[in-house]
User: Fold this.
Amino acid sequence: MRIAGLALPRAGLLLAWLALAACGGAAGGPAASSASSPAAAGACSTHPLTPSVTEGPYFKSASPERTSLLEPGMQGTRLRLEGRVLSAGCQPVARALLDFWQADVGGSYDNSGYRLRGHQLADAAGGYHLETVIPGLYPGRTRHIHVKVQAPGGQQLTTQLFFPGEAGNAGDSIYQPALLLSVQDAAGGGKTATYDFYVQAS
Assistant:
């Protein structure tokens, strides 16, 4: 499935975002984003934790450490995802572990290898970035990227990130507006997206 023509509306960065219960599946929520960095802006003293959602059947442990999931000849719209890992007190979580996995442009997961899978450690400011492609669709789900996030010595968060403006959001019981990416057109083509994770830190 080709998604080069995918229409993703521009979403402005917001200083606050809707926090939902970890197991609720809200449908048809606003295309808002948690992608701003209120800690950096001095606007945050406490913040709700990022909601957790199901891991799903396609997780594989021992993914390679890398910040780019791109490979030669890979089809799909390029996406640069970036943001920060922060504590509930809005403090950066250095060396937080982030483990990403996703479907390819055709909606398939690589279950025999590690294509479109990889982990990384956040930098000293809690920052991360990932080079990938916008995932394709498969029956019963809206477009999404899986991620596990864990502060050093903290509890592991398993969640998914969603794309704004997707018709499938309303029909996906796992979808939560609090997990929406902020997506914009990138200079030179492709898309950029931002999201800040708020996790329990020791």
